[in-house]
TrEMBL record:
Oligomeric form and interacting partners: F-type ATPases have 2 components, CF(1) - the catalytic core - and CF(0) - the membrane proton channel. CF(1) has five subunits: alpha(3), beta(3), gamma(1), delta(1), epsilon(1). CF(0) has three main subunits: a, b and c.
Keywords per UniProt: ATP synthesis, Cell inner membrane, Cell membrane, CF(1), Hydrogen ion transport, Ion transport, Membrane, Transport
Originating species: Campylobacter canadensis
NCBIfam families found in the cross-reference section: ATP_synt_epsi (TIGR01216)
Residues annotated as domain ATP synthase F1 complex delta/epsilon subunit N-terminal: 4-83
Record membrane topology: Peripheral membrane protein
Domain of life: Bacteria
Protein name: ATP synthase epsilon chain
Length: 125
């Protein structure tokens, strides 16, 4: 099975480091997905949710405020200004984690309104 190595790092340290099936990133020019054997690129990221599909088929969510992604064929490195690991399935995300993500976004750019709306939707579940 093809897999990607995903690493998400902030100035405070590593948030995520594992092999995955795919990832959906909040690009400055729009959301984009990365699968194994993707073309190399460097992209600006805006405030949003990174959606990770693990090799076991389960999903994980990570909120970021902004950053950069360096994509190679089978490796992605995300350098984020700030990030909050939200966890797995949307129904299991705790209100405490959602609040932490909202606090992160208070200092984020004006684009954080889209992420705040997404977090509000998770909060109401």
């Amino acid at each position: 099975m093809n897999k990607l190595k995903l690493e998400i790092v902030t100035p405070s340290g590593e948030i995520f480091n594992d092999f995955i099936k795919s990832v959906l990133l909040p690009g400055k020019e729009g959301e984009f997905g990365v699968l194994p054997n993707h073309a190399s690129l460097i992209a600006l990221l805006q405030a949003g949710i990174i959606k990770v599909e693990n090799t076991n088929g389960k999903s994980e969510l990570i909120a970021i405020d902004s950053g950069h992604a360096k994509v190679d064929e089978n490796e992605i490195i995300v350098l984020a200004q700030g990030a909050v690991y939200l966890g797995g399935d949307e129904n299991s995300i705790s209100k405490q984690k959602i609040e932490a993500a909202k606090e992160l976004l208070k200092s984020a750019s004006a684009n954080s309104s889209a992420l705040a709306a997404t977090l509000g939707n998770l909060d109401s579940k």
